[in-house]
Amino acid sequence: MGKPTGFLDYERKNTKAETPLQRIRHFHEFKTSLPVKEQQKQGGRCMDCGVPFCQNGSLLAGMTSGCPLHNLVPETNDLIYRGNWKQAYERLEKTHCFPEFTGRVCPALCEAACTCALNGDPVAIKDNEKMIIEHAFQNGWVTAQPPKVRTGKTVAVIGSGPAGLAAALLLNRRGHQVTVFERSDRIGGLLCYGIPNMKLEKDIVERRVRLMKEEGVLFKTGVDVGKDVTAAELQKQFDRVILACGASNPRDIEVPGRDSKNIYFAVDFLSSVTKSLLDQDLKEGTFIPVKGKHVLVIGGGDTGNDCVGTAIRLGAKSVTQLEMMPRPSKERTKSNPWPQWPRTEKTDYGQEEAIAVFGKDPRMYQTTVKEFQKDKNGNVKKAVLVSLEPQKDKKTGRMQMVPVPGSEKVVDANLVLIAAGFTGSQKYVIDAFGVSVNARTNVATKEETYETNVPGVFAAGDVRRGQSLVVWAIQEGKQAAKAVDYSLMGYTNL
Fold it and tell me: Is pLDDT at 395 greater than 90 in this prediction?
């Protein structure tokens, strides 16, 4: 440990961010790194715990506590405190394929489990790791690592999101010839079109893809497996197939007026904006229009927040965000002790921007839509909202949110964005390969092997575990690569 009293001597400092009114003027990342010397002090706050919960990655009370990748957090913290940035990168790379992604979009499960968080502010692990990888890129330490020997084995990866990219990276370095199939026009999956540019600039993704191409990974865009190419063709052409096509089937809401125009799924809205930004620099008419509209976002998660921030940047007249669940407490409750994930109220960047622009928090808790109202042209114009209250189901004993009679209220809504989560992968892909699914419509696999009921076909990421985090997708891709390698070679060193 670099400084035994570091957690007492140094206060936590976060990366600086532009003010909400500044950053809504553009779609670029708005957080800047601390000076290197200051970031080194943040590494010095690490206590080098005998039991480092930060890297544990265990399931506690239904949520992951600590890093699923089991990053060697105390080691890298100590190394950056001492200024050994290259060694810190080498240790981080042992467990992490893409710290440049999680350093920007991860909710920092590691920090929630940091011992310093038990009675104060956690170590700035996420910012530390982001600086490690960016320092490494700037100094030329991140280089292509093509395999010295090819095995003669071939692997097809369906989907180029974080799970698919992680699996492709490792299997290619092992010496297998990997081809990644992506139905979109760009590589990255949700990293490209699911996460807005202000959270993750797309040149960050492209930078990593260029390296992977140098290493020998083959990428094929605009290929929709199950439509443009059959599963049988891929199974005949490749020794193994990994399904890493995500959980991209959006959950809908069934209420009167749902067929109104200008009601979109959040993923389609965000994708249209990002594609327009990359292709036409947001030329009018190339994305779903927002300017001057009353925007209603249904869903209180990260995607809903991304919709709020994006709508504000595009000139929304107002933004309202609905959350079915009760408002979380501002502080931990006794039933939610450390090192569990803190179920506390968090105000994200989009909500901060809404407060700055409109003077109030856009979120309405314990509220959902009862009905949409149309104008004479069939466009949505208003939404009838209804309050919800928790009620125990007499048959199952489970708590559920039920409408409160007489609580209806009408709000303006010219554009509705449904961010209610996802219900599994696209059915046509599942049907094409004939793989089994579980009760939650996720692809079922054998324990520890990641192999489906179809020999030679594996699954990883959201398609297997359901909608989840980028960090979990990377870990799934790593584990699937290990399983595939073992099935091909009879052993694995991944």
Answer: no
